[in-house]
Design a protein that fits this description.
By secondary structure, the chain is an alpha/beta fold. The chain has five helices and eleven strands, in the order E-E-H-E-E-E-H-E-E-E-E-H-E-H-E-H. Helix content is 28%, strand content 16%. Strand 2, helix 1 and strand 3 form a beta-alpha-beta unit. Helix 1 packs across helix 5. The chain starts with 9 loop residues before the first strand and ends in an 18-residue tail after the last helix.
Amino acid sequence: MTRSAVFAPFELIEGDRKRGIVLLADHAHRELPEEYGDLGLPAAEFERHIAYDIGVEMVTRKLAELLGAPAVMARFSRLLIDPNRGEDDPTLIRQLYDGTIVPANYPMSDQEREKRLDRFYRPYHDVVAALVASVAHDAKRAPLVFSVHSFTPVMQGRPRPWHVGVLWDLDDRVPKPLMEMLADDKALIVGDNEPYDGALHGDTMYRHAIVHGFPHALIEIRQDLIGDVKNADAWAHRLAPIIEAINQGPDIKQVRQYGSRTGPL
């Protein structure tokens, strides 16, 4: 893991904001600030999916390059604090994850929780909010918000058959054509709200897309398919023309309030 005395909680990749596309990667990195050491975990745990979304940094960088679009990536491990959770979510700072106890996360004082929110979680969401607003302004339209994630092939002993999944709530403007175009490749098993449900109150898509009525989708790519540069680049090349095509749709550019399955906005 990279260590630095000055720890930046996010990385902003610049791009053409007039294109109307925003790329996000909540779990792209596994880094920790020096003061947190290794959270009491052996180094091998930071090679696993519990620390970060394997392959996502590579896919997101290549997608940003191919699309000429801006991107924001969180630079801290999800084991420190998970940016893809609401502030009141019980899994915001995990004490146990896929069989691994995180010693430095238990017990967790209110002061330490607030410190992690202020230093890592909120700065990430602040820059995401600023980027989304900037793209909306420069493109003079509702931005297409596209979040890149990956999932482990086996979770809690259960194999996952999907090659890729699309997570969404009620707004199908991006998820529906995305799943249809991915499914054109008959070799792919495409999950609809698999391996997770896209309706999660307070998560990144909820905060930065759903509540604003912006078109969006969260894609989950199986980690064994993007674990090296060659395969990550191949997936970026697969996704880029699909995102381009969706971004040209006439209804994509409109603000539309679809609400959420989690309850009132």
